[in-house]
Structure formats: structure tokens, C-alpha cells
Design brief:
Keywords: Repeat. The chain is mainly α and about 675 residues long. It has 33 helices and four strands. The chain has a four-stranded mixed β-sheet with strand order 2-1-3-4, with helices on one face. It binds one DNA strand of 10 nucleotides through helix 5, helix 7, helix 9, helix 11 and helix 13.
Length: about 675
DNA sequence: ATAGGGTTAG
């Protein structure tokens, strides 16, 4: 524990040593010393007493300064340079420190070359090569790596498991997967464990090169898989956005009886969040609690994010408040979660708490608060956060921040200002910026600025499906059907596919997927009866379908019936026929909800009410392009209530349904201690 | 003393 009172530096955090310590007692003190400051004091003492000449003492001083948590490479280098004849251990230590550093991995190679030229007593040993190879992998030095491989062979260390792993990593990082595979196949491995490690390294290499299929094939072929093999696959899938695959593999892991550990849970949670698989997320949380997996700041961040994205912001807050400690990512997850749920005031309070706690906000935290302001229409406040980010915290605004600001201004109807910002940005605007501007223009019916934004969007990013759809919808909203058909024709010619609108709902642990006008579900007939009933009730209530939401040039009656079969309405119909009153329906959608669905669903939720209303969560919109859903809902956000609470999570990308059995069932296990439903 | 897996984001 180190406490800074401000003026005086902390004293030694270890008992003061005897006047002339023995080399061994100095070494043990160094091992005890947790801060760099303590190391420096002991270093000074070693010089004063002449103990620094002892190679073991000097080596330990070097080790403590570069390999502790608060490592200082420059200091370590100066210690090293003071050694008249560093021993092998010291060379290895500094090489490793450089190899694992972010700033100067190439220094590891330089140092290694220097070592080869130095006195004959300190030639490299087994411990030298892993670090040197790691450095080669890091800077993609294939030439040097291959030479070092030759040296390894010559010295007879080709069967060393540690060296092999790093050779494989070196080849795969440099893009030579064939060499990496050959090396693994031809190696005489000491044991099965080493083989697992090598295969895991290969899989990692495939993923890095984007060869996902090959990675999976290798994984499936592996005879022995460790938890790390599973975790690696799950985390990589999640990192590249293959959330469905990540979850499916996690389930397979359950089925095969492989135990989860801390890293498994941390790796799968982002995938769960993105798929909005709340029940599975709850299962993960319960699993951690039951199996004494500590919910620390890291797992906590993932859980807070999961609960926010899956619609349970109160649970997210509860988890957040119970964490033993908070780091910038924890704060970030909480602030973004609150922003996502339109709880701007709480997001701001959270930000202030963070600052009070002395945590320096990262640029990602600012994405969260700016988002919160955007949701709540707090224009001035958003601007002031933006200025504070730049002027007080010295953070350079990135595309993300400009995106937030364009959203903020655009949604508030300040389109001139939004356009001005786009033109004056210090970074080149990308498609997301133009899309934000254009959709604001569409929202506010600003033709002039909208046309300019559309033109820019077309010039720069014409091959993107999202942009084309937005353009088409923009011109449709102007009634310019000529341009609409031009855009559609262009999409056809360039073979650009629009993401199909798609909604999911989880019922009894199973995810059901619906597309527009879907009649593929086994219960389709019943669903369509319910849809008809919904339409009748809407009609009785005097509801007039908002046909301006249909961006096709067709007759009015046709437009009305198209609206009825939007995927979210089908998902709700299915939810209504398959759950009891009092059940919250969570509908997940990949694209933005249309205005008609938005308002008619609110009415439907009222009909579905069978007991006195309770406050409900509505319209969660975690992505930028659907923020307007939240703004449009603002007036009803708090007054709206229903037992069948319908909350929407809207995402950008398209996911297919996961054919899943009920969560956590398999091998006689039950879901959260309850008997699983069939 | 040395290999393989981890949280936030328009």
C-alpha cells in the first residue's frame, strides 16, 4: 500500500535494512518491494555499500525495476548500463522487458545482437529465445525470426516447448501460417499439454489473419482441448463480431461438461450483450456467484454492460454499486448504460462521481456522456462536455465524438450547426458522420442540407448497403420517387444487399427469429390470428396507421398492410400468444424501429395490460442511428406502462437465430436451480 | 525466470 500525501515522497515501504546488509537480505528486500520508489532506494543503498558489484544483487535490482507492475524501462536500462559485465540472467531480463513493452519491442532484437557479440561467458540460453522471438512476432521481423530459428536448431533447442510456442507465434504473426503448421506437425512434443498450447497458438494465428474457418477446423480437430482453447475461440469470435458463434460455442462447452472459469465468463458476456440474450446473461451471473468466481471490476464491467444492453438498467446499477473497485472501463460501461436508457441526469452524476474518485476520464467515457446528452436533447451540456474533453483533459476528439456531436445537434434540429461542425472537423468525416447528418435532415425535413449530405455520402461511400438504404429513404421522404428508383437500381447493379429487418424474442429460453411478413414459424397460423386481433384493436381505438413510414411507391391500403407485418409486430404477436400476462417481452431488432411500429406497439402494450399499470421500460436504443426513437418517445417514456412491457433493443447488424436448447440445460443441469421447461 | 485466454465505444 502506498499513500501519497502530496508533498513528501513515501518512505520505504519495507523495514529499513541493517547498516551493511548481506547480498541475500538485500535481494529479499528487493523482492518484497512493491513500488519503484522502494527499488530506487535499495538501488542507492546497493551502490553506497558496494553491493551493486554483486551480479546477483544487480540482476535483482534490474528485475525489480522492469518486471514489476510499475515498470520503468528507462530506469532499467540505466541500471543495466551500470553493470560492468551483466550476467546471462540480466541480459534475458532486459530483453524480455523490451519484448513485452509496447514502446520498444525492437530494442529486444538490438540487445540480443549485442549479447551475441559480448563476452563468451554470456551467450544466450533457453530463456533468451522466447523473448527474442516474441519481439520478432511483435514487429513482424520474419527475416530475423527465421535466422533465430536456425540458431535454435543449431543449439539443439528445437524441442523446448516454450521456444516452440514462440516460434509458432512468430511465424503466424508474420503471416507464414504454413511454416507455423509444419512446425507444429513435425515437432516431437514432450507432453499433451504442450501440444494444446501449440494448437491454441496456431488458432490465434488463424484468427489474426482473418482465417476464421481454418481456426474453427483446427479447433474441432484438436484431440485435447483445454479451457483456454475454448475461451480463446469464444473471445475471438466475440471480438470479430461473430456473436452467434461465440454463444453457440459457449453452449457447446456447457453440453460437453467443460467447466467455465473467470475468463470464459468475461469472454462470452460481450456476445451475450450484443445478442441481448438476457436469460443467458443472468445464467452467467448466477454461475459466477454459485462457483465463487469473483465479480471484480473486470467481470463487473462485462456484467454491467450486459444488463444495460439487455434492458435491465436497474440490475446494471445494482451490480455496479456492489463492485469492490471501479476502473475507467467500469465507469464507462455504467455511464454508457445510463445514456442508452435515456437517463442523462444519472449518467452525468456518474461522471461526476468518477471525477471525484480521481479517475481520469478516457475518451470512451466521453462517448458515453455525449450520448447521454444527445438522448436527452441537452445541447448546451453536450457542447460543454465536448469542450471540457479537449481543453481540460487534452483529449483529441475522434470520429466517435464528432459522431455524437453531429447527432446531438442534428436531432435537436440545429442542422446548420451540425453541418458546420462536419465541415470544420479535424479528422476526415466518414460514412457514419454523413449518415448521422442525413438522417437528422430526414427527420427534420431539411432538404437543402440533406441534399448536400446525401451527395457527400454518395460520393464517398456508395458501396455501403446502409448508406444506400438511407439515401433511398431520404429521397422517398421527399416524394422524389425518380431518385429513389435510381438508387434502388444502383443497388441492384452493384449487387448491394440491404440488411433484412429482423426481430428476435426469447420465449422459454429459446430465441425466435422473424423477418418481415414471416410465415415460417411453426405457430405461424396462431401468430397471424393474433396480428389480425391486434389490427382490429388498433382500429377500434381509432389508430390511423402512419403510412409515411413506408418508403415504397405503392397504394395506401397496401402500405397499411405492409406495416402490419413488420418483423417486430410479428415477434410481439408471438410473444403475446406464448406468455402469461405480466411477462415482459423483450424484442430485439437489428434495424431501427419504424415510427408506425413505435406508436402502435405502445397502444398494443396497453391492450395487453390485464392488471394495474406499473412503470415500464420502453425504447432502449443503444445505437446512434436509432437515437431518434428515444427522442420521439420522450413524452411517453415515463407515462407509458404495461404489464406486457415491450422494450426494444435495436442493433445495426443482422443476426440469425440461434437454434438453442434452454439455457444451461444438458447433462442433468437445470436453469438457475429450476427445472428447465421443455 | 521463460508458452496459450479477459471488460467499455458514434
Amino acid at each position: 500500500m502506498q499513500t501519497h500525501s502530496g508533498h513528501s515522497p513515501p518512505l520505504l515501504s519495507v523495514p529499513f535494512p541493517p547498516i551493511t546488509p548481506s547480498p541475500s537480505s538485500l535481494i529479499s528486500l528487493l523482492k518484497l518491494s512493491s513500488s519503484l520508489h522502494g527499488v530506487r532506494q535499495l538501488h542507492a543503498l546497493a551502490i553506497k555499500t558496494g553491493l551493486f558489484r554483486d551480479p546477483l544483487v544487480a540482476a535483482e535490482i534490474l528485475r525489480s525495476s522492469v518486471l514489476s507492475q510499475r515498470r520503468d524501462l528507462r530506469y532499467g536500462r540505466s541500471v543495466f548500463d551500470q553493470m560492468p559485465d551483466p550476467n546471462c540472467f540480466s541480459w534475458n531480463t532486459l530483453i524480455r522487458a523490451y519484448a513485452e513493452s509496447e514502446e520498444a519491442p525492437s530494442h529486444a532484437l538490438a540487445l540480443f545482437a549485442q549479447m551475441l557479440l559480448s563476452s563468451t561467458t554470456t551467450q544466450p540460453n533457453q530463456y533468451t529465445f522466447p523473448s527474442v522471438l516474441k519481439a520478432c512476432a511483435c514487429i513482424q521481423a520474419a527475416e530475423a525470426g527465421t535466422q533465430i530459428h536456425g540458431q535454435v536448431v543449431k543449439l539443439g533447442w528445437s524441442d523446448d516447448a516454450f521456444i516452440l510456442t514462440n516460434l509458432v507465434r512468430m511465424y503466424s504473426s508474420c503471416g507464414f501460417m504454413q511454416d507455423a503448421c509444419k512446425l507444429v506437425d513435425s515437432s516431437l512434443l514432450p507432453d499433451a499439454d504442450a501440444s494444446v498450447v501449440l494448437h491454441n497458438t496456431l488458432i490465434d494465428g488463424f484468427f489474426r489473419l482473418g482465417m476464421v474457418e481454418q481456426a474453427r477446423q483446427l479447433f474441432d480437430r484438436m484431440p485435447n482441448k483445454s479451457v483456454i482453447s475454448w475461451n480463446g475461440m469464444i473471445s475471438k469470435y466475440a471480438q470479430i463480431g461473430l456473436f452467434k458463434e461465440a454463444i453457440a460455442l459457449f453452449r457447446k462447452m456447457q453440453m460437453e461438461g467443460m467447466e467455465h472459469n473467470f475468463v470464459t465468463l468475461v469472454s462470452v458476456l460481450p456476445a451475450i450483450s450484443h445478442m441481448c440474450a438476457l436469460e443467458l446473461g443472468e445464467w452467467v451471473h448466477a454461475y459466477a456467484e454459485k462457483n465463487d468466481i469473483e465479480i471484480d471490476d473486470v467481470l463487473g464491467s462485462a456484467l454491467v454492460d450486459m444488463y444495460s444492453k439487455c434492458g435491465n438498467i436497474n440490475k446494471a446499477i445494482q451490480v455496479f454499486e456492489q463492485l469492490p473497485k471501479h476502473n475507467p472501463i467500469t465507469w464507462s460501461a455504467m455511464i454508457s448504460g445510463l445514456a442508452m436508457h435515456g437517463r442523462a441526469a444519472e449518467a452525468r452524476d456518474c461522471f461526476q462521481r468518477m471525477e471525484k474518485a480521481g479517475v481520469i476520464p478516457t475518451d470512451i467515457v466521453f462517448v458515453g456522456v455525449l450520448n447521454a446528452c444527445s438522448h436527452a436533447g441537452l445541447v448546451e451540456e453536450g457542447k460543454s462536455y465536448f469542450r471540457r474533453m479537449v481543453n481540460v483533459h487534452g483529449l483529441r476528439p475522434k470520429l466517435e465524438h464528432y459522431g455524437c456531436m453531429v447527432d446531438l445537434l442534428g436531432r435537436a434540429g440545429l442542422l446548420e450547426e451540425a453541418e458546420e461542425l462536419v465541415l470544420s472537423m479535424s479528422v476526415n468525416p466518414d460514412d457514419v458522420i454523413y449518415k448521422a447528418l442525413l438522417s437528422s435532415c430526414k427527420m427534420h425535413g431539411n432538404v437543402e442540407i440533406g441534399m448536400r449530405a446525401a451527395k457527400r455520402l454518395m460520393e464517398h461511400f456508395s458501396s455501403d448497403g446502409d448508406s444506400m438504404v438511407l439515401l433511398s429513404n431520404f429521397y422517398a421522404s421527399l416524394g422524389d420517387w425518380g431518385t429513389v428508383s435510381q438508387v434502388r437500381l444502383m443497388m441492384k447493379e452493384l449487387d448491394i444487399k440491404k440488411d433484412p429487418g429482423c426481430s428476435w424474442i426469447t420465449v422459454n429460453g429459446r430465441i425466435h427469429e422473424f423477418v418481415v411478413e414471416d410465415n415460417t414459424h411453426p405457430q405461424s397460423r396462431k401468430i397471424h390470428l393474433m396480428l389480425a386481433e391486434m389490427a382490429d384493436k388498433l382500429h377500434e381505438a381509432g389508430y390511423v396507421p402512419d403510412t409515411t413510414q413506408v418508403t415504397l411507391n405503392i397504394e395506401k391500403e397496401e402500405k397499411e398492410s405492409t406495416l402490419l407485418y413488420h418483423s417486430e409486430k410479428i415477434a410481439i404477436a408471438f410473444g403475446l400468444i406464448s406468455t402469461n400476462p405480466g411477462t415482459t417481452l423483450h424484442v430485439v431488432k437489428n434495424l431501427r424501429i419504424c415510427g408506425d411500429c413505435h406508436s402502435s406497439i405502445k397502444l398494443i402494450a396497453k391492450f395487453a395490460n390485464q392488471t394495474p399499470p406499473t412503470p415500464a421500460a420502453v425504447a432502449l436504443s443503444p445505437s446512434a442511428t436509432c437515437l431518434c426513437a428515444a427522442v420521439e418517445m420522450k413524452e411517453t417514456d415515463t407515462s407509458y406502462s404495461a404489464d406486457h412491457c415491450v422494450s426494444f433493443m435495436i442493433f445495426f447488424s443482422f443476426y440469425r437465430a440461434i437454434p438453442l436448447a434452454p439455457w444451461g440445460v444438458g447433462r442433468g443441469k437445470t436453469l438457475l436451480g429450476l427445472e428447465a421447461k421443455a
